[in-house]
Amino acid sequence: MKAILALEDGTIFKGRSFGVEGEVIGEIVFNTGMTGYQEVITDPSYYGQIVTMTYPLIGNYGINLDDMESGRPQIRGMIVREVCRTPSNFRSDERLDDYLKRHNIMGIEGIDTRALTRIIREKGTMKGIITTDENFDFNKKIDEIKSYRIKNPVSEVTTREIKYFKGSGYRIALIDYGIKQNIIRSLLERNCEIYQFPASSPAEDILSINPDGIVLSNGPGDPKDCGREIGVIKSLLGKKPVFGICLGHQLIALAMGADTEKLKYGHRGCNHPVKDLEKDLTYITTQNHGYTVVECSIDTGRAVVTHRNMNDGTIEGIRYKDMPVFSVQFHPEASPGPMETAYLFNKFIDVIRENKS
């Protein structure tokens, strides 16, 4: 069926629908990964967004039940150059089109995703609408498109109850702001005993299990909207070793008095170069974020930048000098993407060990 993608600046793309028919408004972003569309679709950090895949053919290896990063799709819509309806992979359980239909997600194909990506890079992230309405009138929808905002995303994607994962190693309190399942897998691979807490959990509840360390997960939205969560983090810092990932990284910085700002078009993909300044090595990383820590706002007496993005120079990691706390903006658990920075989970275990000795 014919479909239209309209951006808030008035740019119109015409294509064909896949997934369900109807209408959806969201924030238009792009991901530069050549693979990993299933992980992207189910990553809670994409909650409320319509994702453009820059690689032209999507869906060629289908959808399987093992590579989900959460229990359901988190995106509002999907934009691709061409969707594959005949996947070929021994692990495939269903087609991408069927999966999106089953979860009531809209998609549009047949548009120039290269041109769309250039528009976002030049003008910045924009809101937009996908519709199959044959009588679509942009002028009647422009106010609704511009007023769209992702509301309380962390509360929508966090776990509703405490979950327990058995392990024989260190006890970890994992605060879930919209966690990717591979963070849990990465900790379990290191024999950690895990208590997964809802984002709204008070500091007393988290400390009541006497954790050896605390992990602050990734998640969606503007970190400054997480006032309650920032207050909890302030109460936790200095009491236990803490490792922050993505949103967790930003929330630690805000709790320590630094500032964050929105990037023009964000970092999303599995091919972003980041330099570990302490190792003097550059790694290829998986990223998904639209905000960054403002460098001039960091208290250099208490914090040191440990990782830097090699494309635009933004901060990708911070270590705090007076407490066992460090964080990174990228995703060391990858999934999808290279596993080069998984060493950071080992580093966290080492920090816990040193703190207990």
Spans where pLDDT lies below 50 across 5 or more residues: none
Helix/strand class? alpha/beta
Cα gyration radius (Å): 20 Å
Please tally the helical runs, counting DSSP H or I stretches of 4 or more residues.
10
Work out the count of structural domains: 2
Query: Biggest sheet, strands in spatial order?
Result: 10-12-11-13-14-19-18-17-15-16
Number of strand segments: 19
Oligomer: single chain
Order of helices and strands: EEEHEEEEHEHEHHEEHEHEHEHEEEEEH
Query: Judging by the overall fold, what is the CATH architecture of the largest domain?
Result: 3-Layer(aba) Sandwich
Taking all residues together, what is the mean pLDDT?
Answer: 97
- Return the CATH topology of the largest domain: Rossmann fold
The CATH superfamily of the largest domain is: Class I glutamine amidotransferase (GATase) domain
In the CATH hierarchy, what is the class of the largest domain?
Answer: Alpha Beta
Task: State the share of residues found in helices, binned by percent.
Answer: 10-25%
Judging from the principal axes of the Cα atoms, what is the shape?
globular
Q: What percentage of amino acids are in beta strands?
A: 25-35%
Largest pleated sheet: 10 strands, mixed
Q: What separation lies between the terminal Cα atoms?
A: 64 Å
